[in-house]
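Your task
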Amino acid sequence: MSSHPSVLPDPHFFVAQPLFLNLVVNALKYGRSAPLRIHVYAKKKDAEWMIAVEDNGQGFEPKLGDQIFEPFQRLHGNEYSGSGIGLATCKGIVERYGGKIWAESKPGVGSTFYFTLPGITE
C-alpha cells in the first residue's frame, strides 16, 4: 500500500495539475535567490488529505491571506510577471473537489499554502 495520498476518482481530476503547478511556480517566483527551499507534503486527517506547499520565500502579511485567492489580486503589483488569477484558479479547483485552501505566511520568512481534498475510505 502506497503512503501517497489518494483522492476520490473523477474523470476530470487531471485539472488538479494546474493546482500543484501554480503553487510550486509561485514558490519559485517569490523565492529567495539562495538557498531556495520548497517542501511539499501530505497528511491524512479523518476522511481527507491535507496537502501543503511550503517555501522560504519573501512571504506576505498574514492579514492578506484571504485576499490573495481573489481574482486579479496581486500583492506585488507589476514587480513580478503574472495575471493575478493563479491562486484564484487554485481556489476554484480545490472547492470543485469539496476541499478548502488557505495560506499562512510571515514576511521575510516564507509561506505555506495548504489545501484539503476528500480521501478514499478503505
The CA atoms of residues 34 and 56 lie 10 Å apart. Strands lie at 38-45, 48-55, 101-106, 110-118.
